[in-house]
Structures
1.
Amino acid sequence: MPRIISPSFLSADFLRLGEAAETVNRSRAEWFHLDVMDGMFVPNISFGLPVVKALRKATDKMLDVHLMIVQPERYVADFRAAGADYLTVHVEASTHLHRTLQAIRDAGMRAGVALNPHTPVCAVEEVAEMADMILIMSVNPGFGGQRFIASALDKIGRMKDLLLRKNSAALIQVDGGVNAENAAQLFAAGADVLVAGNAVFGAEDPVAAIQQLIEA
Ligand code: DX5
Ligand code: ZN
């Protein structure tokens, strides 16, 4: 089982994004998690294409872009051009999700599907084969540093069953409130990729914090 850590730059110091990228480059984290918010799908506005583009120049690691925007299909080509490797859209935000996932793959990216905490596992039943990753939100999206919602743990196992039944090789990613205390349980439950914002960039030594999460 891969144990991939995707540090969320939402918790980085935006005045020092270059240094944050250098730090993650030196660490064992394999991915960069970039949270794009539009103030519509979620109450917060974060950053967009220019920041993704700038970070593309700062790393060879995977750019894992999490779109928390309405009608994400409008921006598939733009995020490809900005350098995204994974593009994750919310099932609640895309009316024609099947078409959106196809468009992401056709553009040459890996397609991710995110589920809010209230969204049942069966919401991805018909698109499981078209997804390269399923993102289980373990907080209500919009902000870093929130408390982990415990029901997400059980959801991982149920998602794993669905993926097996559908013959899907999609990775399972968990995002929100991940820390050194719950990481072991999440990996044991079947998570492949853990996103961590506060637990990494809020730590005195982010490189050590990432190592701790991998070895949890
Ligand atoms: C929340 C974002 C997360 C967030 C995670 O809407 O999708 O990626 O940055 O932050 P932590 O790990 O601090 O909960
Ligand atoms: Zn995220």
2.
Amino acid sequence: MISKRKFMAVSTAIFITGAAPGFSQSTPSLKDAFKKDFGIGTALNNAQIEERDPQMTAFIARQFNMATPENIMKSALIHPKWDTYDFSMGDKLIEFGKKHNIKINGHTLIWHSQLPPFIRGIHSQDSIRSFFTDHIKTVAGHYKGKVFSWDVVNEALNEDGTLRKSVFLQYLGDNYITDAFRLAQEASPGTELYYNDYNNEQPAKRAGCIALIKKVKEAGVRIDGVGIQGHWHVGKLPLKDIEESIIQYAALGMKVMITELDIDVLPRNFQGADVSQRMTANEQSNPYAAGLPDTVQQQLAADYEALFNLLLKHKDKVTRVTFWGVNDGNSWLNNWPIRGRTNYPLLFDRANQPKPAFEKVIAATK
Ligand code: XIL
């Protein structure tokens, strides 16, 4: 319990800095600004789905018209034991979406990370096949008519465009991706079905992604779109690769989405978003704990401006842009690839106040 004295101190601090959580009616709404262009989404965490903070709920409803669960539909959480599924949080998210007019993108059916622990004890092809089939049928079936779309398969590719040697590839062979889309289509016919990955704007991985899409299509199985996660780094946005990827994916008839957008401002010695990759902390790894220097703030704003100008140029091909978190305080980049850092990758600060990058993104629509 928070003591009354502490509460007074906190509320006074909020008053003095003017950083009241919530939003001001004068702050434009992203979803309204991009209404004619593409959907605007956010990742949602447990506290947000459970509406623990009414101001946060109102803020989300005002800014976003699409949402992706940050964790709760991953197999470890939704399918914790061999024959036990837990739909409680997912169902709350569906209610949240209905109540606030937000379309839900299910994330994700088949992914090699955040798997339930019991998978480690399975060493037969038959058992992996049963897990794979039951999982897709049960989860996609449960949310049939409730989610707008599914990330059917997530991160199946290596950086060189070959297939990642996941448990699924090892036991099921290279048709498993087509099988996943076929099962998802059967279980949830009206739902849009996507392939999602990071770095799939990079030429080699993109070529692998194109081959993957073609293989699914050639089998006569439906695939509706491709998600480029968009975990990028400040000052290093691969705009040319992004543009070429949008054009090439769209030429295959794919809807193109940026599905997990954030722009990391902290030191990093690798590219991409492999959740199992970690870095060791040192004295230089958390440089902005006391605040973001203006030069970096301006670079971040310029990056977001250039990116949204590009996405608007291709608004006939881009159907959605989803940020991986509502505000800087929620971002997974505060804890990955090093725990406990202070990152600033999104458009809203820790009190949901718009940052210079937000102003640039809104201005890009004018
Ligand atoms: C991240 C979540 O944000 C973290 O909370 C979790 O600990 C690890 O996963 N690619 C994806 C997302 O597809 O599901 C990942 O989300 C980030 C990288």
3.
Amino acid sequence: MESKKSSLGSSTPDISPSAAPSYAYALGLTQFQGFWIPSRHVPTSSIISFQKYFQALDEDIIVVSKPKAGTTWLKALVFTIVNRHSYTLSNTPLNSANPHQLIPFFDADLYKENPNPDLSKISSPRLFSTHLPYSMLADSIKRSNCRIVYITRNPFDIIVSLRHFFRFIDDWSVEDYLEMFCRGEEPYGPFWDHALGYWNMSVEKPSNVLFMRYEELKEDSVAQTKRLAEFLGFAFSMEEEKTGVVNQIVDFCSFNNLKDLEANKTGKIPRSIIPSNKLFFRSGKVGDYVNHLSPAAVERLSNILKEKLNGSNLTFN
Ligand code: PAP
């Protein structure tokens, strides 16, 4: 049996559709509370601590996504919108820090280092993030009036983006990654359950959960940024719109601008397993999957998605 390089540099069994546990094993995924958690990176104990101890405030803002759906971009936009009266674009901390450093993850950052961190001194609104599904959020979030912004992306581009990103830990093919998605056995997967959890809540509680799509943000960045700001309670004034503030924020947070900032070109997040911030910026395009996935592969996952999302009004084109 052929061997492939795994995240720990050891050999793992070849992956075939019949080798059901291989992906989870080799990627260090643990099935926990119904989802596949990358437990080498995010210990389940940090999730339990977060669920047990986190006390949400009504003013909190939580950025949520599956990996590679547009997290970095959304964090940059949320940080800039919320802090635009404190920082200009020339002195914003985004010039010297990656967006992930400014909006920490509950599970991978805050509760990983300390089971019950003191978050009371963070100025309001507190900005947090997570890749966890809705069902795994702390109950205090669900009971509070805080705001959750969820971003999703067509899973085909996510697959290609993940494949490129994880080159530093494995040498699987894009087909392997597709197989993983078809089984729902990918980081924070299944994809459909993750998306449906937030989709349903955005329908049920639209003033608490905003459902965004990478493709829509790309297609009309200005309109989507205004929608985001309004949802967050930081709507742009007429004056700001007239003087071009929205366009300036959109341009500042664009792929081309962010990727060329020194913090993203040469920086690395301390204690992170990600070797360079450069990896968060690859091509930033919609539809790149056509260059990597065969039509048959796309059809296969499309059919699974159709079945899984049936009856929900949630679709992916
Ligand atoms: P993460 O979950 O590891 O934080 P995330 O930021 O969600 O990753 O996704 C990275 C993708 O967003 C990359 O996509 P690609 O591989 O298809 O290129 C990355 O290039 C893209 N990206 C990062 N910043 C931006 C941006 N400002 N505008 C558009 N796309 C972006």
4.
Amino acid sequence: MRTQVGIIGAGPAGLFLAHLLRQAGVESVILESRSRAYVESRVRAGVLEAGTVETLSALGLDARMKRECMIDDGLDIRFRGKTINLDLPGLTGQHVVIYGQQEVVKDLIASCISLGQPLEFEAKVTGLTGLDGERPEIHYLQGGEDKVLTCDFIAGCDGYHGVSRAAVPEGKITHYEKTYDFAWLGVLSRSRPLPDMTYTNSDRGFALCSRRSTQVSRLYLQVGADENPEAWSDARFWDELHQRMFDADKVEIVEGEIFQRDVARLRSFIAAPMQYGRLYLAGDAVHITPPTGAKGLNLAVADVRSLAGALGHFYRTSQRDKLARYSEHCLKRVWRTVGYSTRMTELLHKFPEQGAYRRELQFAELDFIHSSRAAQAAIAEQYVGMPYEPI
Ligand code: RFL
Ligand code: PHB
């Protein structure tokens, strides 16, 4: 098999890229190791910045999102009996949209299939060759058979545990990494959510109340790094969440059936440059931000907008100038966004090792944000997201 751009991974990065390339008249094939059902049911992000919403709209794929999404106008931060209420439209003139990542993924896959976009499930990429040459190859295993896809370019959109970043020769890429000593236990519950996205820094640890619909809450608790989600009975989860949210009477947060639970370790990770030879890396394959900023999916979309722009330009003009700028262009946004997510992580979590001095500094900072509109505006501006700059 042969194509112009071989895309590894049918997560948000790979799927958006295939659609954007198609719009630019560039052909691609997506290879995904998992089944369609698995990819469509993986619960993850929920907060879409304006740039991500715009991208779905420009592709003509926003009909269901417009019907089913929720607008998030407010962000609350609770600490020591106080609440900071960030009025997003008042502070920034913008809001964010709540629409589950797996819903975005379902919409993108359905459209790929109806448009005849080549998308192979259960096709596990095992290695890449010829990245330095003109015709790089993707080796993959499908139905017990070894197969090869020959491409002009390869897009590594295969997430943090994928194979494409590992295909870059040693010494050609630098890794910057910080792993936190804790994780988030996330659940989905059939219960009416709080009206605003609510983060809390309590003496029992961080918690977050988000939502997926008027009937489904998405809730998170800071837990130990190696926590087993099964160790959390429903009763234990609700009891802990009420306490961390300062909901002493247990009436504010509505309990319901917990039907999904997962644990994710918090880390920051950036690999630079985001390119080697004819391999271009995008999304979680090349950077991870702690989820406190709600940015991973949005960064993945910004990367592939730039990559599709640069590849489209190459096929139209034979000029490589935009491809040459891809990594530098994306990394500016990546470092700023990782910086924001890191600051929010450090402001809102309880660090087991931090001691009373750093804990009081956290609360002093929260008090300052509580009293300062300028400080609130700075957080709100970063939460709604940077405008997208075309490559
Ligand atoms: P993905 O989604 O991991 O997709 C990679 C795909 O590659 C496939 N793959 C392979 N395919 C073929 N051959 C191989 N050898 C392969 N190896 C892997 C995988 O099966 C998979 O389908 O990466 P992508 O596309 O870069 O998308 C990134 C986002 O998924 C991620 O950044 C976000 O979910 C992060 N995130 C959030 N982002 C936001 O923008 N807003 C949020 O509110 C938000 N909340 C979150 C989050 C991530 C979380 N977790 C679970 C870490 C909340 C949480 C709890
Ligand atoms: C979510 O709704 O899953 C969510 C919201 C805010 C975050 C992270 C995740 O910071």
